[in-house]
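Bug report (template v2)

What were you trying to do?
Predict the complex of my protein with zinc ion.

What happened?
Run completed; filing so the output is reviewed.

Input:
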Amino acid sequence: MLLAVLAVLLFGLWKRAGNRGGQQYAEPFRIAGDLYFVGANDVSAFLITGPEGHVLIDGGYPGTAPMIIASINALGFDIRDVKVLLNSEHHFDHAGGLAELQRASGAALWASEASADAIARGGDHADLPLPVRALMWARILSYPPPRVDHRFRDGDTVRVGPVALRAHVTAGHTRGCTSWSFAVREGERELQVVSACSLVVLGVGRYAEQGADFERTFRELRAIPADIWVTSHGRLWGRYRKFVARDSVADPVEAFIDPAGYRAYVDSGEARFRRGVVQ
Ligand SMILES: [Zn+2]
């Protein structure tokens, strides 16, 4: 009896930990123009605001959604003004909070054709290693399924009034992995922003076209101009380093202008792929 109680207790704790993914609230901030960071300490989420409504990229873990909503509030915006939800990839740590964000905002969710079914199911088991799949079957790593309202193709543009983001299906990490490019206006300057998808090569459960997809993805990402770049994990784009660096430059936006960092991100992703480094 005691063992059963203990097991239930541990399962509950484990599930809660999985929902949060160890994420902590992180102070939100403006990156440039109408682009804001609203993610947690590692998993990213980005808000792009506009006069006819806002766009939100990524939902973090299920447990990250309340942090994202709190961050949007803290910046003086309202989750109910988010009209479009976008996503970089269907995995638990970036799509897990979408259902709650959709409930709170009423926003339409756009997903790439190759991600839509996985997201609408609350995760995809097929391309993950067996132990991870087991956690999904136990409903520890699946997530509340959001409603997918629209499907886009590579090269499509998603708009909310003057806010326009171009979808680049940069597959490899997942089949539908999507990078987003858009412009922000900072004073007199127009800055090009890229939200790049993960370049981590998942070894077990890799799909047949993964190699060809990655080859195309490296070419595609290199062809996108980037003054500012971000990606779905803060540690990879230097969220905290750049956030702190704002205090030591005359114009805080300068801390985020990093075309060399973007090239290095793509180069290191490609180098790992060529060396056969899988995770
Ligand atoms: Zn992933």
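What did the reviewer find?
The chain has a mean pLDDT of 92. The chain has one domain: 26-275.
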